[in-house]
Design goal:
It comes from Flectobacillus longus. The chain is an alpha+beta fold and 197 residues long. It has nine helices and eight strands.
């Protein structure tokens, strides 16, 4: 989404869904975000670094992934159009992260320096409230995800994923969806074929 007006409208719709910022606060918040393009498989935040940015996705798909010393990967979450992104624990604590935030497809994002966001929040407390509500939403999603991982079969996780994000099969490569629900890509293909979508 190279059109700045379209990017603003998408940002505005997403932020206004929280019903917290007035027009002036929204405008000032938006001015912190600068457009940036990434090619497929670009690293936005590398494991071992500190998250310095809050992102807003206007185009493309990204994921946060953990990789162990043996190279095994665990996809933690996906971000795509109209999502805020970044490695939240590092962003909030200022500590280095264990996770990598990377693009899966060519991506266009808006990026704001987290320190500038915090400074603006001192002037406009509603921005801090927006961030807090966003964090509560993200935390709630992570709790639901923990339950899915511990309690449900691969088929049940797949059905929940499709219910939550019906369009995800069209935008995320299947090997990453397989990793997300904890099965290998071959079994994922069998799973898709066995379930009526």
């Amino acid at each position: 989404m190279d059109n700045p007006e379209e990017s603003y409208r998408l940002f505005e719709r997403t932020v206004n869904s929280f019903q917290i910022l007035n027009k002036e606060e929204l405008r000032r918040f938006y001015t912190l975000f600068k457009p940036i393009d990434y090619s497929r498989k670009s690293v936005l935040t590398e494991a071992g670094s500190t998250e310095k940015y809050l992102y807003f996705v206007t185009e493309g798909v990204q994921r946060i992934v953990f990789q162990d010393d043996l190279g095994h990967e665990a996809t933690i979450l996906f971000t795509y159009q109209a999502n805020f992104g970044g490695v939240l624990d590092s962003m909030l604590t200022g500590r280095t992260t264990k996770y990598t935030y990377e693009t899966l497809t060519k991506s266009i994002l808006l990026r704001a320096n987290i320190y500038e966001v915090r400074d603006l929040g001192k002037i406009y407390p509603a921005i801090n409230q927006l961030l807090f509500e966003g964090l509560l939403y993200a935390f709630s999603g992570l709790l639901e995800r923990l339950v899915e991982i511990q309690c449900y079969s691969a088929e049940e996780k797949f059905r929940i994923l499709l219910k939550r994000s019906p369009h995800i099969l069209q935008i995320v490569p299947h090997k990453y969806l397989a990793n997300y629900i904890g099965i290998d890509a071959t079994n994922f293909s069998k799973l898709i074929n066995s379930i009526k979508l």
